[in-house]
Design a protein that fits this description.
The protein is α+β, with helices and mostly antiparallel strands and 269 residues long. The protein folds into 3 domains: 17-73, no CATH class; 99-200, no CATH class; 206-269, High-Potential Iron-Sulfur Protein, Chain A. 15% of the residues lie in helices and 21% in strands. A hairpin with a 7-residue loop joins strand 1 and strand 2 (41-50). The protein is elongated and about 80 Å long. The two termini are 46 Å apart.
């Protein structure tokens, strides 16, 4: 049975019907208290009404007393891992943000060195892998600070070869990625283009320039430098898991079915 915790905000009072708004919530919005203050707040799904003063109560009948107050919970409350932390510390994770996708553009100095570091995060218990910038990777934390929530994402970094004989670069990158696969499952498929960003790739010179298809249509600027005709047999945008009706969910851009990029991912039927 739900027993309200009476306080100044939910003690019975007289409401004017014209000042009441009745609504419905599907969850991820309000919580209520079960029993005494020592009990955990519970997510509420159902009808609720709101007063002119902004107070929110459970149900759709404002004449029912005692009233059960609803309160907004931080978004982290509705994530199981964060909820446990929230209930213990009463701290939320609302300062965390979703990882921002980053596509690296090596500098001339990095090409001279021949390698540079790449950073990745993967959603825990999911297949989502996102490449992030060095700054974003540095803000990875579990203390409700700006950055990536380490309770929800795993992180790794690797050294990527971009200079020297291209065949050797592929071999080195393959060994690196195969080793990282033990740490982050799926990274081997994610980095399937083993000479991506290499200095010998002629398409590199087109970076940051407006590119068009042969018929003159402008290629979406979100698409990577290596977006072009397939370089691997049997792989193209038409059979890529990121393709949703000729729109790439990885790059958030329109694509053509007969093209390809290094982020090609096999469809799991």
């Amino acid at each position: 049975m739900i027993r309200p915790i009476l306080n100044k905000l939910n003690r019975p009072s007289n409401f004017k019907i014209k000042d009441i708004t009745i609504s419905y919530t599907n969850g991820n919005e309000y919580v209520y208290q079960m029993g005494s203050a020592g009990f955990e707040p519970q997510e509420y799904i159902g009808y609720y009404y709101k007063t002119k003063s902004g107070h929110v109560y459970l149900g759709n009948d404002p004449t029912t007393t005692p009233r059960v107050a609803l309160s907004n919970a931080p978004k982290s409350f509705f994530e199981e891992k964060n909820k446990r932390y929230f209930l213990l510390s009463r701290s939320s994770f609302d300062r965390h943000g979703y990882p921002e996708y980053f596509y690296p553009s090596p500098t001339l100095d990095q090409y001279k060195v021949g390698v540079f570091t790449r950073y990745f995060v993967k959603k825990i218990n999911e297949s989502t892998i996102i490449e992030v910038s060095k700054d974003s990777a540095a803000k990875y934390n579990n203390r409700n600070r700006e950055g990536i929530n380490s309770f929800l994402w795993n992180r790794c970094q690797l050294t990527w070869t971009i200079s020297g004989p291209i065949k050797s670069a592929r071999e080195v990158n393959k060994r690196v990625v195969e080793e990282k696969e033990k740490e982050m499952t799926g990274i081997l498929n994610y980095l399937s283009d083993l000479d991506e960003l290499h200095e010998e790739r002629p398409i590199l010179n087109l970076q940051k320039q407006t590119k068009t298809y042969e018929d003159g249509e402008v290629i979406h600027p979100n698409l990577p430098v290596a977006y072009g005709y397939p370089q691997k047999q049997g792989q193209n945008c038409a059979n890529c898991a990121f393709n949703k009706n000729n729109a790439c969910t990885m790059w958030q851009a329109n694509i053509r079915a007969n093209f390809w990029c290094g982020r090609w991912k096999k469809i799991n039927y």
